[in-house]
Amino acid sequence: MSPAFGAMEVEHYSKGVLLEPFVHQVGGHSCVLRFNDKTICKPLIQREHQFYETLPTEMRKFTPQYEGVVSVSFEEDEDGNLCLIAYPLNGDHNNLENLDNSDCEPKSKLLRWTNKKTMLLENEKLSKEWVRQHRKEEKMKSHKLEEEFEWLKKSEVLYYTVEKKGNVSSQFKHHNPWSMKCHQQQLQRMKENAKHRNQYKFILLENLTSRYEVPCVLDLKMGTRQHGDDASEEKKANQIRKCQQSTSAVIGVRVCGMQVYQAGTGQLMFMNKYHGRKLSVQGFKEALYQFFHNGKYLRRELFESVIKKLTELKSVLEKQESYRFYSSSLLIIYDGKERQEVAVDSDPEDLEDLSEESSDESAGAYAYKPTASTVDVRMIDFAHTTCKYYGEDSVVHEGQDTGYVFGLQNLIDIIKEIRDESSE
């Protein structure tokens, strides 16, 4: 079945969702887009799609929830600005209607197609002049982001100040040049292929950061091998070189990206994959320490939950026969929002759910009430995953993915080291 369908078919189920860059993408090169607050989407790769549709039940709690497939089209205006719009796949109007679009802001971002492929904003209060000015501003931002990304590649660890006013999370969209660059590259690829196709399949996945007000995200490239069985000799050699020159070959894991909120300064710290590749094992350990440190104190209360989840994931993967998760990443996510401190001698009802730990060594007679957020550990990126159930694969592996399990065990050991050293 062709992934593309004509404009008249789209018009029948006319509503589409304007996609935006997913600002909490800290690693990788594939474009991840925001569908709504609870859902993201990314270009469909058949092997990854097959994984999500057939993955073992016991692995589902360690992967994003798969929510279906949409068709994504793009439109270019007279100034050369591009936007991406998601539509129900092959006229399946339930595909989008079953998803909660109530948090797509602003409402004017719902678009309507005509058979002439012109876009009409449903909110008639927005004039064409406003749209023109808005696109002009976005284009100016685009040029600035290009400059920022060049700086990002040279400055592998960056700090951005987050404005104190308003919701902290609402300020994120201006501070992640990595996600913006991935978005721009995707638009450019689609523009270059415009003569051949204008519709693409994207898969919908759970937005793992949606439950956090200020997501702190660590993207770890897992395993001692990154190239898939179908990699060209050039690609294979390139991936082997990257592994040998990084911590991947030594401990089976390396930093692929990081985003941490520094509560002490009100800044966001970003670390990119270029820096992650250069780290020694000791440097990797220091980067992990930095991920769990908010600029004021180490978030020690997170360690046990992370270790527990990683240990459970390791146990699950040890039982997976013939799976290989080449070039897959592991995300660790927690909320960087500062916890509310409550005096120990407060009224009893104020202390009902307090943790027994103090928030830091200098807290004195204070305890803290944890926020509703928890630490999350999830596997992502399965474009090069293989197992014996994929009938078309020429190579069939036996047993567990030892390289991935090796990386998990070393990750667990290093986090335990940080925990134990910080408590001394």
UniProtKB/TrEMBL annotation:
According to its UniProt record, the EC number is: 2.7.-.-
InterPro entries under this entry? Answer: IPK, IPK_sf
**From its record, what is one biological process in GO terms?**
inositol phosphate biosynthetic process
Could you say which residues form the signal peptide? none
User: Keywords of this protein's UniProt record, alphabetized?
Assistant: ATP-binding, Kinase, Nucleotide-binding, Transferase
Listed SUPFAM superfamilies: SAICAR synthase-like
- TM region positions: none
> Among the entry's GO cellular component annotations, what is one?
nucleus
Output the Gene Ontology terms for molecular function: ATP binding; inositol hexakisphosphate kinase activity
What family is it from?
A: Belongs to the inositol phosphokinase (IPK) family.
Cited PANTHER family:
INOSITOL HEXAKISPHOSPHATE KINASE 2, INOSITOL POLYPHOSPHATE KINASE
Name of the molecule in the record: Kinase
Which species is this UniProt entry from?
Answer: Caloenas nicobarica
Q: What is the lineage of its organism?
A: Eukaryota, Metazoa, Chordata, Craniata, Vertebrata
